[in-house]
Amino acid sequence: xxxxxxxxxxxxxxxxxxxxxxxxxxxxxxxxxxxxxxxxxxxxxxxxxxxxxxxxxxxxxxxxxxxxxxxxxxxxxxxxxxxxxxxxxxxxxxxxxxxxxxxxxxxxxxxxxxxxxxxxxxxxxxxxxxxxxxxxxxxxxxxxxxxxxxxxxxxxxxxxxxxxxxxxxxxxxxxxxxxxxxxxxxxxxxxxxxxxxxxxxxxxxxxxxxxxxxxxxxxxxxxxxxxxxxxxxxxxxxxxxxxxxxxxxxxxxxxxxxxxxxxxxxxxxxxxxxxxxxxxxxxxxxxxxxxxxxxxxxxxxxxxxxxxxxxxxxxxxxxxxxxxxxxxxxxxxxxxxxxxxxxxxxxxxxxxxxxxxxxxxxxxxxxxxxxxxxxxxxxxxxxxxxxxxxxxxx
Amino acid sequence: xxxxxxxxxxxxxxxxxxxxxxxxxxxxxxxxxxxxxxxxxxxxxxxxxxxxxxxxxxxxxxxxxxxxxxxxxxxxxxxxxxxxxxxxxxxxxxxxxxxxxxxxxxxxxxxxxxxxxxxxxxxxxxxxxxxxxxxxxxxxxxxxxxxxxxxxxxxxxxxxxxxxxxxxxxxxxxxxxxxxxxxxxxxxxxxxxxxxxxxxxxxxxxxxxxxxxxxxxxxxxxxxxxxxxxxxxxxxxxxxxxxxxxxxxxxxxxxxxxxxxxxxxxxxxxxxxxxxxxxxxxxxxxxxxxxxxxxxxxxxxxxxxxxxxxxxxxxxxxxxxxxxxxxxxxxxxxxxxxxxxxxxxxxxxxxxxxxxxxxxxxxxxxxxxxxxxxxxxxxxxxxxxxxxxxxxxx
Lengths: 394, 394
What we know:
The structure is a homodimer. With about 400 residues, the first copy, chain A, is an alpha/beta fold. Chain A folds into two domains: about 10-330, BirA Bifunctional Protein, domain 2; about 340-394, Rossmann fold (3-Layer(aba) Sandwich). The first copy, chain A, is built from 15 helices and 15 strands. A nine-stranded mixed β-sheet of chain A has the order 1-5-6-12-11-10-7-9-8, with helices on both faces. In chain A, strands 2-4-3 form a three-stranded antiparallel β-sheet. The longest helix of chain A has 20 residues, at about 20-40. In chain A, about 50% of the residues are buried. The interface between A and B is large, with 100 and 100 residues.
């Protein structure tokens, strides 16, 4: 490869948004920002770079190897933000201390993860999301789920499903079965990755009584409509698991009031890949995309790590995944209307400038030819660039 | 400092945008995107991280020390983008080769410079700009200047001035005076930093004839209305300088047709701090801000370095500088209207949810209380959060 080719390359897992893609991205982000505002969520923006200690405080140091790291002039380790929940926790703990609770905050932001790229997710990708901080009520959880539904609807998606779980149900069940912490981790990983073979092998390898083994093996199968909750109530012998199910029941009834219960599927095997979740968790799926579009949940302990003990819940949706889903489902909107291309013969340039300015003042999208040309040439250009009308000044 | 305080810190030269600031930023960026679209400029977005070789190909390796560097898994050096002209040159040379010329491209993007922070400019800041690629005409230069004026007007600024120069005028003059390359650099630096004392010292140190010395010393004084051009024509003995002045004259006449000539001040001492400029250059200033808001110019050689010889012109405007100017000039818009805060007594939660959804469907900005409360409490919260109306369901 010549040096010329090298300078034209971009790093692994990054991409350019060419005009059509960038226009779609801006349009979707605009609609999302509008929806967040209508629901009373205030946007915040944080730096692209944070200290590594800040990011690992929220995410745990096991994610450190997936972070893009760099160093400041004093050799302190920094990293590109991995997600937005942690930076917002930092903002809440350091900058918003005098404001009345709860905080309803939103963001639309790039995030960076050094990992194998997935469908609709590069190493640099874009997320929109909210954090509802300072309320431990089911109302808060129901609000963020209903808002996630609204975001997907506003983005233009018609067909999607929300899988709703509760991490405390599984935690309670494992406690009830006296499973050792190390085995708990293995079991959770197998459930999270939907690896039933691995799950069975791990469970069979434990000293658990047969009844407990059967119960743990059933966890990934607790998936479906409201009846799943009744089944789960029969399994839940301890307070922790039962409270988790009561919480899901309350959230579901509120979602009925929001008129979005038809999007909800219970899935008690949803755990999510962030260690900070402590209650309700959910993921949204749409046909033709093998990964969740959107995910979130309650995280009541992260803010404590930042020195401000506040309960919190929220979600993030992947912008690229929405764009990809719309495209795959044939729902992508055509590019923005381009109205007029203004071209001219020699000597008519100033007249053309005055006309094009008038048209723009009327709100029209117009392009001006950079030099005099033939009408035929002008029309070919107009067509190629997608302008509806040619005004040719002779 | 405790560990807790450390994780609440952010790196030097970065900042958080709290709700009011983030809302202003989004509003300004929305208006700018709208204006770019109306002028026929298509947005593109490029990765935050590029290979160092790509960035220095455009910017020159002398800027390398100001870049935030990091390494990929193969130990290739990458850096956070320093400005957007170079990444867009890369896109044009690698991705848009089949499209009809000219390209009219725009961006709104964060950029990163590891240097002492300035008024309205942190190490991470945001720029909006355009690149008009494939036209060497004065029409192209006039269009980007007129668009810069339009952007500043749309952003809400009333009082600003564009200082317009031409790097080939100075280059021609130096050639005419037979100034050595090394001295040319020193002279340009002194002119760029408006350091008349240094300029005089450098010039006095040369072997130049007295007439040439006097001419160079006058360069930073060539500042004012159209009469400055007549004065400059008298100094320009060679073709290169005269062509530069002809080019400025032509651009000015086109700007008269655009109706924006009243914003233009000629300033033949404007050079700009990027080495890639090769023709017209400009900077926009507004009262109360000691740095340019906006700057740009023609760069006809950069694309050649990327393997595609195309003339180009463009500009970038600093988003934070616009926000700061609006604030200092008392032109900042009040925060977005928040319509209704909906609260309720115990048992009325579901009714409240239905009402708040109705209001949002009518396009109103509404917040729902997270738990039942007293009307007095609800009204205090409403007031603090800036909602106009309280609806209290009893």
